[in-house]
Amino acid sequence: MVSHQSIFDLTGKVACVTGASAGIGYHVASVLVGYGVKVVGVARREESLYQISQNLGENFSYVAADLLEKSALYDVCSSVGNIFGTPDILVNAAGINAREPASEVTSEGWETTINLNLSSPFFIAQAFSAGMIQKGWGRVVNFASLQSFRAFKGGIAYGASKGGVAQMTRAMAEAWSSQGVNVNAIGPGFFKTELTEAVFQDGDQVSRNAAQTCIGRNGEMNDLDGPILFLCSDASRYVTGQILMVDGGFTAK
To answer: How does pLDDT run across 31-83, given as a tens digit for each residue?
Structure first.
């Protein structure tokens, strides 16, 4: 039995966090480092990753890579594993949202969205799952969305990808959880990040989104801390295949 004192303890664990150069990915990496995890961040912007490494210290390192380059994903995963060892935890936070009307979506834009939001998370998890299974312990946390369950204007490609993330999460759990690897997803509400910058520039929209929640406000980054620690630790040892909506009750109304 895990004691109450250690149920959230992550000291010495190794994590890979994609999209770690900004927004939610950066925040997740910071939280995990603060709780004793050795984190490898993956993102395109090497300069930002370097600056983050200076801020977070020796328990944060990084691999600069474009996750849209599918042929390079194996090399990326290998490079991540060579830094602190095979990850115990994978957080798939990288993503893109073009916000285009359905009539303006191109095949190239559709493929970019699906590849970054859905395909890359699966193949990265597939690569790391073998090491987690060998250890008999692992955590994969994907990022779903309000649009996993709701249709938003200008969100057909993004919504399709995030609906896929919800089902992929369940299917990953079915595939790997009997071998010790729990897979869940967080579905954030409206948080101010680069990805939602256009939304937060519209004061009326910000107010409407806040009013849609049960709590009455939009998300703040530290609202994610508890859910991340829960899903990455032994606290969630009997929780898998779930989408935890961290949305202030947006989807409850």
So the answer is: 999 999 999 999 999 999 999 999 999 999 999 999 999 888 999 999 999 99
Cα–Cα distance for residue pair 84/70, rounded to 1 Å = 23
Beta bridge partners of 12: none
What is the chain's percent helix, strand, coil content, to nearest 5? 50, 15, 30
Task: Give me the active site residues, please.
Answer: 158
- 46-56 and 23-34 helices, crossing angle to 10°: 30
Whole-angstrom CA distances from 89 to 15, 69, 85, 143, 147 are 4, 22, 11, 14, 25
Q: Are 205 and 197 in contact (CB under 8 A)?
A: no
pTM: 0.95
Q: What is the spatial distance between Cα 55 and Cα 151, in angstroms, rounded to a whole number?
A: 38
Alpha carbon separation from 186 to 65, 67, 84 (Å, rounded): 24, 20, 25
Is residue 130 within 8 A of residue 90, CB to CB? The reply is no
CA distance 240 to 211: 31
Fold classified for 14-194+221-244: Rossmann fold (3.40.50)
225 exposure class (CB count in 10 Å sphere: 0-12, 13-18, 19+): middle
